[in-house]
User: What shape does this take?
Amino acid sequence: MTESTKTHVILLSCGSFNPITKGHIHMFEKAREYLHKTGRFIVIGGIISPVHDSYGKAGLVSSRHRLTMCQLAVQSSDWIRVDPWECYQDTWQTTCSVLEHHRDLMKRVTGCILSNVNTPSTTPVIGQPQNQTTPIYQNNNNMNHTPTAIKLWGKISESLGKICCARPHIERFTFVDENANLGTAMRYEEIELRILLLCGSDLLESFCIPGLWKDSDMEVIVGDFGIVVVPRDGADTERIINHSSVLRKFKDNIIVVKDAISHPMAIVSSTKSRWELRYLENGFQGIF
Assistant: This one.
């Protein structure tokens, strides 16, 4: 497959990130590596979306600090960014709402409707707005040249940056003004772009807990968007999927990252990181 015929993907990870760990970043890297190896996808960007303070989780640190920690964790990455939209809302947002927000935002930025997993691949997602200006990625030497993933993500990020506003108490962070008029300033080659939810097998398993998720939300998350799962601690993802009628129904929309080499994905766990920090604190208190 050529670059233009592959599905371009933005990986979105929701969670408390309380705190963010190296394992979270490793999860992004492993997912991108695996998707690229399939030959069907090009990952052009990753988004970390920390949960709102009103989520109600015990011990949840203020979003101001969690956002700062996340930003520090990705400061050396050229493709993962932290998005504070979820934290800046009036109340907690469902994962479904966060996915829909980013889908609608990207639609407005690019001027086209983003593809869902069930949308025919012939449907252009980042296409050509109606203005007839010269395409941004047009190559004078080769009219069939397609944009690289890095250029595409960079251009989208640049356009988002033009409509971003800084919140006073977190000067390093920006959020997108969803009321901004983006117009049709950009023009792209026709490619297919999807937003996929990135998660660990623990979140996948939570879909099987009765009453925890609305069936309608699960239908949208798995059926319309699709998910990429990076298993932790040797979890049996096949068993988890078969345990849920919704997951079984949309099994083809679930991509499980497989790796011949065993990686300690337990380090993704923020809970274990907090335990270790408390252990160290108690240890130091015993010394002094």
